[in-house]
Write a sequence for this structure.
């Protein structure tokens, strides 16, 4: 898979829930469109990403597909409380050739992976709580993540709406070390100090919005900030404590 393809998939994955609410806003059916993505990169001396990409999503009564995530709900998706099973593409990766740093170019590649697991969604007096667990199943690191977030959607009078999401994601030691650690063998071949990350994670906040041009055509946009734990930021291959991303696009709902 090319670097551009991985970045496109990561763009959709990073804001899947916010984009899904912005595109569908509780309406069922298929939506297709296109979007532009910008994101900064966490790795040392690695440029930010700017790409356009196609977008396709589907929302039924119990099943949804949003770019890189497939989910099935025990209850209808509009139910106030639900348990879902999800299969997700985790687009976080590192290609040594993307870095301008000679030592970084000698590291092993970190591949994108597949994740699967349950998610609980529980409606609160204000907003919705989402708690999920996901295990890596593509034989790269056998790690897992835990994620808890609060999501609030508001539709204004007329054809516009906003969605905000605030949460924390914990990565197991296997996952964190795969993405941000430096093994003894890598240290020997690059001169970069070996580093063991351990279990760690990141706080994040996302904001999305939409505006309907017609009953079928919808403009949407979203932004996300991610603040990484000190154990990740202290890695010798990481250069940013905070990363940011932006998506803007248009979707046609059938």
């Amino acid at each position: 898979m090319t670097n551009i393809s991985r970045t496109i998939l990561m763009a959709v994955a990073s804001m899947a829930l916010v984009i899904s609410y912005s595109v569908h806003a509780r309406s069922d059916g298929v939506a297709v469109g296109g979007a532009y993505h910008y994101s900064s990169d966490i790795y040392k001396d690695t440029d930010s990403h700017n790409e356009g990409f196609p977008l396709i999503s589907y929302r039924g009564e119990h099943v949804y597909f949003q770019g890189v995530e497939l989910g099935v709900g025990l209850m209808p998706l509009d139910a106030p409380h639900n348990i879902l099973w999800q299969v997700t593409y985790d687009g976080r990766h590192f290609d040594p050739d993307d870095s301008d740093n000679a030592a970084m170019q000698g590291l092993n590649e970190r591949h994108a992976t597949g994740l699967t697991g349950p998610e609980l969604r529980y409606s609160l007096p204000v907003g919705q709580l989402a708690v999920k667990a996901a295990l890596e199943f593509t034989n790269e690191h056998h790690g897992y993540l835990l994620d808890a977030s609060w999501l609030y959607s508001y539709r204004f009078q007329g054809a516009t709406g906003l969605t905000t999401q605030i949460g924390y994601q914990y990565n197991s030691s296997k996952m964190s070390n795969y993405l941000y650690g430096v093994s003894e063998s890598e240290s020997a071949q690059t001169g970069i100090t070996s580093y063991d990350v351990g279990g760690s994670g990141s706080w994040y906040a996302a904001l999305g919005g939409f505006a309907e041009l017609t009953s079928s055509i919808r403009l949407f946009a979203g932004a996300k900030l991610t603040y990484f734990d000190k154990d990740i930021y202290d890695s010798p291959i990481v250069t940013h404590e905070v990363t940011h991303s932006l998506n803007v696009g248009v979707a046609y709902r059938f």
